[in-house]
Write a structure and sequence with these properties.
By secondary structure, this protein is of the alpha+beta class. The protein has helices at about 10-15, 20-30, 50-60, 95-105, 115-120, 125-130, and strands spanning about 35-45, 65, 80-90, 110, 130-135, 140, 145-155, 165-170, 175-180, 185-195, 200-205. The strands form 3 sheets. Strands 2, 5, 6, 7 and 8 form a 5-stranded mixed β-sheet that branches. Strands 1-3-11-4 form a 4-stranded antiparallel β-sheet, sandwiched between helices. A two-stranded antiparallel ribbon has the order 9-10. Helix 3 packs parallel to helix 5 (about 115-120). The two termini are about 25 Å apart.
Length: about 210
């Protein structure tokens, strides 16, 4: 609701009265919607003890990261375990605290990186449906000491067709500077920031 953005009852009322500008009322209606929604739930079985490199090979990915190694993603021995992976779409908001609050609201907990490996193997077609599924497990460190999590996605050019990929995604906010044309015919600079844990599709585990 708008209250989570710090709006008072009086401010909310002023936004949605009939005398308010229609654009403002549209924005108010959007912000009043839930910040996330559940998309689907899928069963997976964790076998336990299979090295990450072998699991990656079993996923039959055409694209990915050479940083996915047994050392970076050690696998513990355990009995086969059934888990329910729930896909959540974060519609607006950013930050791990916000994402975890939405997980809590829907009765979900953070996945492990082992969940990501088995999900990719056992539900390969879902990567084409959702394009990118982020597994917000406890981050591991890349070779550059950047916190990363596993992500399942697609890649490729239109003429070549898309392919499935597993890669490590940095969850640190990134900033880039771009040039944009202005109405005088020249250019001006703009800074774009890609927030950590922003809108997208995330995998959680049903408690």
């Amino acid at each position: 609701s708008l209250r989570q953005f710090g709006a008072t009852d009086e401010q909310i009322h002023s936004l949605v009265t009939e005398n308010s500008d229609w654009r403002v009322r549209q924005i108010a209606a959007i912000l009043a919607q839930p910040a996330s929604k559940l998309l689907d739930a899928f069963e997976i079985t964790l076998e336990g003890g299979i090295p990450a490199s072998k699991l990656y090979s079993m996923g039959q990915y055409r694209g990915g990261s050479d940083g996915i190694t047994d050392k970076r993603f050690p696998m513990a021995d355990h009995k086969p375990t059934r888990r329910t992976v729930v896909l959540l779409e974060l519609i607006y908001g950013e930050g791990l605290d916000k994402l975890m609050a939405e997980f809590q609201r829907h009765g979900l907990e953070r996945p492990t990186y082992e969940d990501a490996f088995y999900f990719g193997i056992q539900h390969p077609k879902l990567q084409e449906k959702y394009e990118e599924i982020v597994f917000p497990h406890e981050p591991v460190l890349s070779k550059n000491d950047t916190p990363v999590v596993l992500t399942l996605g697609t890649g490729g050019e239109m003429l070549e067709g898309s392919y499935r990929a597993m890669y490590m995604r940095s969850m640190a906010a990134s900033t880039c500077f771009i040039r944009m044309p202005n109405i005088e015919g020249g250019f001006h600079g703009a800074t774009l920031t890609s927030p950590e844990w922003g809108p997208g599709v995330y995998a959680g585990i049903r408690k």
